[in-house]
Design brief:
heterodimer; A: about 375 residues; mainly alpha; 23 helices; about 60% helix; B: about 350 residues; Cytochrome Bc1 Complex, Chain C; 2 domains; two-stranded antiparallel sheet; 15 helices; 2 strands; globular
């Protein structure tokens, strides 16, 4: 009887292991390995079609793995170009891992995460899968399991705000530190890492009067002003807090800062002014789609070119900012004009009354003439 | 014979033009029906020269204004039909696009809005004046009943119409109106069958639209027609027979009234356009809107009385006016000369006015 059951089980699952290990079965069935026909014996060894428990667990069978063992088992397939190439998955993960900070600590017998700690063991999902713990949007939580302080800082950042909104383009831990080859960035590397996305900001920073003094003073490039994990949106308040830690009010640099700051405030105010007018005429309602689009485009443009602020060259900054501020002012001006044009409708009222009074007068005259004719 | 005379005589030999014209002139243009045995040209001439009482005098002005405003509604409503889309997705955007993008859309929409308000005000004034002069004494009971039903239909048209733009105010009106009307016996049931159980969806908007643009206008037209037929038969309430001919007598007077009414409506529409709020969203609370003014009294009773009592009182109050010509047996003289009737009517009128104001302030 048992033999028949085992046979059924083997036919149904193509393995007899789940007859006893039913708790693994449900988890393993969700895994990408199950759908790609990776069997129990591929990792654990043994004989999965055997009808006897002893025989099934015989040979090279292994129940549990050491940390190093996990890496060896996974890399059996994942380091093979032949097996990984069809999936388009990189096959250098083991090498990367061994070079990483995690890998180096592992060799010193430290308790560090290996493959199964991040990817799980039986329940392995594709990394794009929403359920996967290594999904882009879940990475901060995964790393935060061990790196608690860093996660707390990161969770206050503008980057994490976007991740929470579901923006997959926002950087998580792995974008700066790497994933399998995770390594803390060196002292002079921060500008390169941030510059991967903030290209213009980096270029301008390298040309700026700040670059050399920063190196001499041992300041950490971007991090010195923007912080590392808890990087906030770079708004006007940044110009108050950070500058004064190095410069005092009598310096020329301080005047430059004040000039740039007032330019930014002016631009912000023109934007708000245009926005107010648009919402005012939208309620009437008047056509505002074009104005809104232009305002949005200009706002986007200013966001994209904000990197120019790193040059600290007032003339250059004015040149860039003013072209967008000009759009803001134009939009506000057009909105006001539209409103004024709409107000001219009041002129129609006296015009209409005048027309009607004249008509009534003419009608009365006509009536008089007719009644005179009748007489 | 000129070309046009030939055309007219060609048609006249084949269609009873007199009858056709007589139907149209029922709506207050000529006082008398056109004779059928004469050629149409002579018949019109005769009818125009027949001395007749002028509509364009106080207090008949209220009636003629009601009709003129209704015609404004028909014309502007007809223009709005070309762009309005009756669905949850299209209602708001099409309304906004009418006001914003279409030529004269702003004026047409707001003239439609203001004519509706003035129409209601006129019909209410007309009901008050009917009571004051006791116009519904025999043989003019029909005048009163028609005026009362006109009021009900126009009020209903006002509600179904204010739902159509589907902005926050419109959605709110539809909910509150449902609250007011659903407890009333028979009326509430009919409303639920016709317009659904207070949910705002495509069907509700479509049905409000059908009632607003087809069914109610037809009913109102029918009532007007019956009223004018009755006027032809029994005459105006107080004979104001000046012996004027229709043309050039009161034809021009009515023309002048039309012009002035248009100017007034246009002025109001221009200075106080209807506010368009944000699009209506279900499950969002809206504050700061008032019920349409004619339902403030209903709302006051609903919030201050038990629901059962409210439904009975409103039902009776809606029913009583239909039988008023047979209930009120006082002589047909102005109300001010009948102390008992004056006190009773004033108490009812002031009660409605006071509760409405109380509700409005709240």
């Amino acid at each position: 009887m048992i033999e028949i059951l085992i046979l059924f089980s083997i036919i149904a699952d193509s393995t007899g292991c789940f007859l006893c290990h039913s708790e693994v079965r449900s988890k393993y069935k969700l895994s990408i390995h199950y759908s790609e026909n990776v069997s129990c014996s591929d990792c654990h060894g043994g004989n999965e079609t055997a009808l006897d428990i002893k025989k099934a667990h015989s040979g090279n069978f292994r129940e549990k793995f050491t940390k190093m063992g996990v890496i060896e088992v996974c890399s059996k397939c994942h380091s093979s170009a032949e097996r990984m190439a069809p999936y388009g998955i990189p096959f250098d993960q083991k090498e990367l891992y061994m070079m990483s900070a995690h890998g180096k600590l592992l060799l010193k017998n430290k308790n560090v995460p290996v493959c199964s700690d991040c990817h799980d063991y039986h329940e392995v999902y594709k990394s794009q899968d929403k359920e996967s713990p290594v999904n882009r949007l879940k990475v901060p939580y995964l790393c935060g399991n061990c790196h608690k302080v860093e996660f707390e800082d990161y969770s206050q950042s503008i980057h994490f705000e976007d991740v929470k909104k579901g923006n997959g383009n926002s950087p998580t831990c792995v974008d700066c530190h790497g994933s399998h080859g995770a390594y803390p960035p060196g002292f002079r590397d921060i500008d390169k890492i941030c510059g991967k996305c903030h290209i213009q900001a980096r270029e301008n920073f390298l040309k700026s009067p700040h670059y050399k003094p920063f190196i001499e003073m041992g300041l950490k490039e971007c991090e010195a002003c923007h912080d590392n994990h808890k990087v906030k949106r770079a708004d006007i308040t940044l110009w108050d807090g950070k500058c004064t830690s190095c410069h005092n009010e009598k310096e020329e640099a301080f005047k430059v800062k004040e000039e740039i700051k007032s330019l930014l405030i002016e631009t912000e105010n023109s934007y708000k002014f245009a926005e107010e007018w648009i919402s005012k005429i939208e309620k009437i309602p008047l056509e505002t789609e074009d104005l809104i689009n232009r305002l949005k485009d200009a706002k986007k443009g200013i966001e994209n070119e904000k990197g120019v602020l790193h040059t600290l060259n007032v003339e250059r900054i004015k040149e860039v900012i003013n072209q967008y501020k000009g759009v803001y002012d134009d939009v506000a001006h057009e909105a006001i004009n539209k409103y004024k044009l709409f107000q001219t409708r009041y002129l129609l009222i006296p015009a209409l009354w005048f027309l009607i009074i004249v008509t009534i007068f003419l009608i009365q005259e006509y009536r008089k003439r007719i009644s005179k004719g009748e007489e | 014979m000129s070309f046009w005379e030939k055309v007219i005589s060609f048609i006249e030999r084949r269609i009873s033009l007199n009858e056709l014209l007589s139907f149209f002139t029922s709506f207050g243009i000529f006082y008398t029906p056109l004779p059928h045995n004469k050629p149409v040209k002579e018949a019109i001439k005769d009818a125009m020269e027949t001395p007749s009482p002028s509509y364009a005098r106080w207090p008949y002005l209220l009636g003629i204004l009601t009709f003129i405003l209704f015609i404004f509604q028909v014309i502007t409503g007809f223009l709005l039909l070309f762009y309005y889309i009756p669905s949850t997705n299209g209602a708001y955007s099409s309304t906004v696009s009418i006001i914003r993008d279409k030529p004269f859309g702003f004026f047409i929409f707001n003239i439609h809005h203001w004519s509706a308000i003035l129409l209601l005000v006129m019909i209410i004034f007309r009901l008050i004046r009917f009571i004051y002069h006791k116009v519904f004494s025999p043989p003019r009971e029909i005048f009163w009943i028609i005026a009362y039903f006109l009021f009900l239909f126009i009020a209903f048209a006002y509600v179904t119409g204010s739902v159509l733009p589907m902005d926050a105010g419109a959605g709110w009106v539809s909910y509150r109106f449902f609250e007011i009307i659903s407890p009333i016996p028979i009326v509430g049931k009919i409303y639920k069958i016709l317009l659904g159980a207070g949910k705002i969806n495509d069907i509700f908007i479509l049905r409000s639209y059908v009632f607003h643009v087809v069914i109610i206008p037809i009913l109102i037209f029918f009532l007007f027609y019956i009223h004018f037929l009755s006027v032809r038969k029994v005459g105006l309430s107080f004979g104001n027979y000046e012996g004027k001919s229709v043309f050039p007598g009161y034809f021009f007077e009515i023309l002048i009234i039309v012009f002035i009414t248009f100017a007034v409506v246009f002025t109001l529409a221009n200075i106080f356009p209807r506010k368009i709020f944000d699009p209506f969203l279900e499950y969002k609370n809206y504050f700061g809107f008032n019920v349409p003014f004619m339902f403030l009294f209903f709302d006051f009773l609903r919030t201050n009385l038990p629901l059962f009592l409210y439904s009975i009182i409103i039902f009776v109050l809606l029913l009583i006016p239909i039988f008023l010509p047979w209930i009120d047996r006082s002589p047909p003289i102005p109300l001010i000369k009948k102390p008992v009737a004056f006190v009773i009517y004033m108490v009812i009128f002031l009660a409605i006015l006071f509760t409405s104001i109380m509700e409005y302030i709240k």
